[in-house]
Write a structure and sequence with these properties.
heterodimer; A: 504 residues; alpha/beta; six-stranded mixed sheet; 26% strand; globular; B: 415 residues; mainly alpha; ABC transporter involved in vitamin B12 uptake, BtuC
């Protein structure tokens, strides 16, 4: 039995959309099989079909050599197929163990949970597969990477032989990605099979044994990392020539837009998150901010937006003292903000797109007339954003929650770049979007720069930093430790600086 | 990000606060010491008298049952504003069926009809998807209206009147042998502090209703179900993350049906207690907003059965004082002022200025009242329990860990 999964001719249609067609997939036992494609290429639909969440209109699935019909996740679980969702399905107000055993609790007399037996089994699994897990820890204390391990443990606890991971790296910082990959390699070594959805080509090339590329709902090609390269994969995904970021010439206007001098900030829990930080952003430049997540980036943004007050130092933005100005007035002065967590800070998920277009612009013309929202203008401009930024949506009256993550991000970027802002704070602007959308977002950022805007680009994607930034500032434990010229710096030097090493 | 990483700390604190028995015990001991002192100074003997502790328990049980009812519903993810109405169901059915077939049948009938009223709330909110607050409000209105209507039809014919049922036979009570006389003996010796504590225990052990003991058992039972049983785990996840529960094959709808039905049964039993134990008659307006106070005890108790119990005792205690003697309220204010003063001192020493200022302010206010106010208006006494809740919630609000999805609309298959 060589192939654990054989999928032929899968088709799934929704009114007006073909989510999957002609899908064929063969997954070998004990391999890491990556499935890549743009947002909306049908990867998630296919995975949901394999996990029994969606029933296909046509096609055959063979699992472990037998024809199967997956009516529900329970069928999939019974067959040994488990899924690690992109958005974790965990409860904070419970322990790791409780999260893992939910739904397949070992019991005494049918209703009393046998916690001892459950804990023993979880510890055994964790040791066997090299997962670091403390069963009795409260989930609320865990970071993203640890939560993902709990999700993986949950699937293994149910005896899964095939793990489906839906964009597992989208939520992780680089170190956590490395940890995840070493965990996955361990799982495969122990005989499990991993199906890995991604659109990050570097990751796929480094972890996968085989790669299947999807485009517009269909599987278009299969490759192995040895037989292909990044450019070919990207072209297969997009179906044509790949747009590249063009680092245009710098035309700094010299005008100082943001000037932060010796800013410090202490969080309520007493942690000093910003430490004598100084930074200047000029018009017509993109200042990249590199740093491992959690080194003060979020607090820096909050400081600039006037959301928190520094314990020392000055923060000046567009001539305003950010420490004494309302966020509303800072925004109205021409500051755009693309937040890192789009669903939490960027959108009202249960509001239609056109209402989301008004957000952040609700106090100024053209979105508002005095106290009233200008609905007509909001609708018109939402349509413009949708077409200019290629937001894939049935219309502007649908709820923001109906869009896929990448399309939500495109809509936010489009909204924030409306009205020619002078300062753009872009936190992970292309995280979770596909290469096509990435190119659109990059183009618009560079266009804004050429029109004289200053852009503070916070990114975990070093490629993005190198290709867009005019200067790269490195933030480490709340201070700017280095400012580098991207043309004279190697990724290795930047990486070293991000760890706080002085030599850079 | 700052908020995200701050939450675990808060959650932890909340846990350790409620979970550390030593701290709670010390706190209770301090409060009791202050109460004894105040009693000796003001000679308001009622605060810790046996009569007060017995009355406290009688006032606490209906609140406790409403609170546990609220806890069951909210732990499963549905807010139950209808507790008040479900209590009315309990008072009326207990009195009517109690009159017809004896109090035990009345109690059983209250349980059954309470279950049905809970099921009604479940059908409206879980299956049909009506807003949880609207459904609860509807239940309150329907129950109050139906009780008045049915009273008018049934009661006048059998010796009651339009708002009062005929009297119901009382349920058996007992006094714990050996222990009760032992503590009574110590109480009468008037030793500082020790006699006060004994008096309190004596009050709790005398003329105890069998029903009181039975209903109290729901506290450990609820704890045990929530944290030890399969159903409890599934119920908690229905309230914390129903999407997760469903993705693991758990029938969230069924879990909620059961939990909300139990919620209705518990609240209704609280109502039955009012009609059968605390009195022996149904009277219109008998529940007097206890369902809502019950909801407050859920928050006060941080969605934990033990906390709900503590909350209902606190409310029951202020209630008991209010009906017994208004002198005691004055003494209570003094006791509260002293506790607030000590708390303020503690905060000053640990350099937490904000809480120090708040508790210091309360202490000064209590002092001012003791010096300047000679006669407390009845309105203030009535409002006292509510004021106490407000103060407590102000101090605890930041440390609470409510079920994450309680009150949120949830449909099967949503992500």
């Amino acid at each position: 039995m060589d192939n654990v999964l054989d999928v032929v001719g899968i088709e799934k249609k929704y009114p007006g959309v073909i989510a999957n067609r002609d899908v064929a997939l063969t997954v070998k036992a004990g391999s890491i099989h990556a499935i890549i494609g743009e947002n909306g290429a049908g990867k998630s639909t296919l995975m949901k079909i394999l996990y029994g969440l969606i029933r296909p209109d046509a096609g055959h699935i063979k699992a472990f050599g037998k024809d199967v019909e997956l009516k529900s996740p329970q069928d999939a679980i019974a067959l040994g197929i488990g899924m690690v969702h992109q958005h974790f399905k965990l409860a904070d107000n419970a322990t790791v163990l409780e999260n893992v055993i939910l739904g397949s609790e070992p019991t005494r007399m049918g209703f009393i949970i046998n916690f001892d037996q459950a804990r023993k089994k979880l510890v055994e699994i964790a040791e066997h597969y090299g997962l670091e897990i403390d069963p009795d820890e409260s989930l609320s204390n865990l970071g993203v990477g640890e939560r993902q391990r709990v999700e993986i443990a949950k699937v293994l606890f149910r005896g899964a032989k095939i793990l489906i991971l839906d964009e597992p790296t989208a939520v992780l910082v680089p170190q956590e990605v490395e940890e995840l990959f070493s965990n996955l390699r361990e799982l495969v070594k122990r005989g499990l099979t991993v199906l890995f959805i991604s659109h990050k080509l570097d990751e796929v090339l480094s972890i996968a044994d085989e790669i299947t590329i999807m485009r517009q709902g269909a599987t278009v090609a299969s490759r192995t990392p040895k037989s292909t390269n990044k450019v070919e994969l990207a072209e297969l995904m997009v179906g044509g020539e790949l747009p590249k970021p063009r680092a245009g010439a710098t035309k700094s206007t010299g005008e100082s837009l943001i000037s932060i001098k010796n800013a410090s900030y202490m969080r309520q829990d007493g942690r000093q998150v910003l430490n004598n930080l100084s930074l200047e952003l000029k018009g017509g430049e993109i200042l990249g901010l590199a740093g491992v997540e959690g080194n003060g980036q979020s607090e820096l943004i909050e400081l600039i937006m006037g959301l928190v007050k520094p314990s020392g130092g000055t923060v000046e933005i567009l001539g305003l003292d950010a420490t004494k100005t309302l966020t509303k007035d800072i925004r109205n002065a021409g500051v755009a903000y693309i937040p890192q967590d789009r669903q939490r800070d960027g959108l009202l998920m249960s509001a239609p797109l056109w209402e989301n277009r008004v957000l952040g612009h609700q106090f100024a013309s053209p979105m508002a007339n005095n106290a009233w929202v200008n609905k007509g203008e909001a609708i018109e401009d939402s349509k413009r954003v949708v077409s200019e930024f290629d937001v894939r949506t049935p219309g502007i009256n649908v709820l923001a929650s109906a869009l896929s993550g990448g399309n939500q991000q495109k809509f936010i970027v489009g909204r924030e770049l409306s009205g020619s802002p002078k300062v753009i704070l872009a936190a992970q602007p292309t995280r979770g979007v596909d290469v096509g959308a990435q190119a659109i977002i990059w183009d618009h950022l560079m266009k804004a720069r050429s029109e004289g805007a200053g852009i503070l680009l916070i990114s975990a994607d070093l490629d993005e930093l190198f290709s867009l930034s005019d200067r790269i500032a490195v933030i480490y434990s709340g201070s700017i430790v280095a400012t580098l010229d991207p043309n004279k710096t190697t990724p290795e030097q930047l990486g070293l600086a991000m760890t706080g090493a002085k030599s850079a | 990000m700052s908020t995200q990483s701050a939450t675990p700390n808060k959650a932890e604190k909340a846990k350790s606060f409620f979970k550390s028995p030593a701290r709670v015990t010390i706190l209770i001991a301090i409060v009791f010491l202050v109460v004894s002192l105040v009693e000796n100074i003001t000679s308001a003997v009622d605060i810790s008298s046996p009569g007060t502790s017995g009355a406290t328990l009688r006032f606490a049980i209906p609140l406790l049952m409403a609170g546990l009812g609220g806890l069951w519903a909210e732990r499963a993810g549905v807010i139950n504003i209808g507790l008040e109405g479900m209590m009315i169901v309990g008072t009326w059915t207990a009195a009517w069926f109690g009159y017809l077939h004896g109090p035990w049948v009345g109690l059983l009938a209250a349980a059954i009809f309470g279950l049905l009223s809970g099921l009604f709330h479940a059908i409206l909110t879980v299956k049909i998807g009506i807003d949880q607050a609207v459904s609860g409000l509807a239940i309150n209105l329907i129950a109050a209206g139906a009780a008045r209507y049915l009273s008018g039809i049934f009661f006048p014919a059998v010796g009651g009147d339009r708002t009062i049922s005929p009297p119901v036979e009382t349920l058996p009570t007992f006094t714990v042998p050996v222990l009760a006389p032992f503590f009574q003996g110590i109480d009468e010796k008037n030793i500082f502090l020790i006699s006060n504590v004994s008096g309190l225990i004596y009050g709790l052990l005398t003329d105890l209703s069998v029903v009181t003991v039975g209903l109290l058992l729901f506290v450990p039972l609820t704890s045990w179900i929530l944290w030890r049983s399969k159903f409890g785990l599934r119920m908690r996840f229905s309230g914390e993350n129903p999407m997760a529960a469903e993705s693991l094959g758990i029938n969230v709808y069924m879990t909620r049906y059961i939990a909300i039905s139990v919620s209705g049964m518990l609240a209704s039993l609280g109502g039955a207690y009012l009609a059968l134990v605390a009195s022996s008659v149904y009277r219109e307006g008998q529940t007097a907003g206890r369902g809502f106070i019950g909801l407050a005890t859920v928050i006060f108790g941080n969605w934990r059965p033990g906390g709900v119990f503590a909350g209902s005792v606190l409310f029951g205690f202020t209630d008991a004082l209010r009906v017994r003697q208004s002198d005691s309220v004055m003494a209570m204010i003094m006791a509260a002022g002293i506790v607030a003063g000590l708390l303020s001192l503690y905060y000053v020493l640990s350099r937490k200025w904000k809480p120090a200022a708040v508790s210091g302010g309360i202490a000064l206010f209590a002092l001012w009242m003791n010096l300047r106010v000679t006669n407390i208006p009845q309105e203030f006494i009535t409002a006292f329990p509510n004021l106490a809740t407000l103060i407590v919630l102000t101090f605890l609000a930041q440390r609470l860990t409510p079920p994450a999805m309680a009150g949120m609309p949830y449909r099967r298959g949503s992500e």
